[in-house]
Every structure is written in structure tokens, then in C-alpha cells.
Amino acid sequence: MAIPVFVPGPAFPSVPPRVLTVAGSDSGGGAGIQADLKTMLAFGVHGMSVLTAVTAQNSLGVHGAWELPVDAVRAQYWAVVDDIGVQAVKTGMLSSAVLVETVAGLLADTGVPVVVDPVGVSKHGDPLLAASALDGVRTLLLPVATVATPNLDEVAQLTGVRVEGEADLRRAADALLEFGPRWALIKGGHLPGDAVDLLTDGSEEHWLRAPRHDNRHTHGTGCTLASAVAAGLAGGKGVVEAVVAAKEYVTGAIEHGFPLGAGIGPVDHAWRFRGTV
Description:
alpha/beta, 9 strands
């Protein structure tokens, strides 16, 4: 029996932009690698993954985490980059100093836009980054970032700046930019009032506002936003355009977040498609 052979031509669609996520697995499917790949699909890009850790996780919290060996992380990365190629990379959970150092080195050798989500704690307050890894994030990972997307707890961990109100967002962004990312996106979602984020490269500022939705099911928000930004960059958008599109998408995903289990449910990555299938 003859084996079908792939022949490029009009019958085959063009290859979509390719985005690589380097992050941990969330067994509950709301955050981590799972959220990243769902977001990338929603943006029409081809998502690929490098697994850094496995977590036992559900709507109530993280019940265990197991880091993968550095050799396994490095092998996954180059298997994808050398053969398939990437247009952007997004990083998430890098639990230890050695993983941060390894991934930062891989990114420096790749030469594509990088979105760094410096994951420090889970939605439930579970620590996901060792204190010993913070210096590596500051000195190795942030300098290779096109966009860094910390929330208020993470920016306080990294810079010491505690944001109590909108007026503090600029100070937090300036402190983060000192570590070398091209752009800082400081997420002010934990502040009262509208959900306001500040995007800046130190010379221009963009204040992104969205109505706050009364919905506690927000698991995966940070992973989703960072992945959406990476998808936009891979598709050729500039940083500002990519972040604005990502903010719009994640706002809808939060609005449509749904309950799962007995705790905090996930945002809805498919909210744009509900009712169409």
C-alpha cells in the first residue's frame, strides 16, 4: 500500500506563526502550559511547548510540584527550535535558579521576541519560584525579555516596590526596566476599581483600562495574557498592538470564567467561540 506523500501546493494552507511556551503543567487545565496552548489556538498560531515542571493542581491549589531535569528542558527546546522554528517564545514557571539560568541562555541564543511572565506564586498563593532564583530572573532572564508581565506581587518580589495605587505603577515599571527588559507591562488587576495595566518602555506609556468583572473564576489570567502577547508578536504585531489585543482577549476570558471543582475556576479561553459550534 502506497504511503501518502505531502506535496505543498494550493490545497495546503500556509504555515501559521509558531509560538513556544516554556512553562509548567497545570493538571487542572486552567493555567500553565495548558492555558498557553489554548490561548495560542484562540489567536490562530501554532503553539509548542517545553515542559519545565509537573504540578498536581486543581481548583483548590497546588498539591505537589516536580521539576524536570535541565537536560530534558534543553532537549525539548532545541528539538523544537532546530527543526520547526519559532517566531516568539513565552516563559512561565521556572521554579529554580538552575532552570532560570538554563532558559535564559537558550533564549539569548534564539533571537526572537520573548515574553517573560515571572511566575512567583499560584492564584491560590502557592510558591512556584524559589527565593534563590530571583537574582537569576533579575540578571539573566529579564535582560532577554521583549516584554515582562509581572503582577503586583511579582514586581514587589523582583524590585521591592509595593504598589498600593495607580500612582505606584510607574515607579514599579521604572524599577523593573532597570533590569533590562525592553518593555514592562505591570498588571494592576489586584487594585480596586477598573482593571488597569501600565505598558511602558521608559519613554512612552500606555495605560490599559478595562471594566472589572464580578467573577472569582480567574485562574490562568497571567499565563493567558502573556501567551496572547507572544501570539501577537509572532504574528507580526508591534508590542503596543499585541498588548492591546491581549488585554481585550483576557478581559473577555475573565468575564466568561466558569466554576470548576470546589475552588477557583479558570478563565474561558474559548469565550469568543461559544455558541458558534
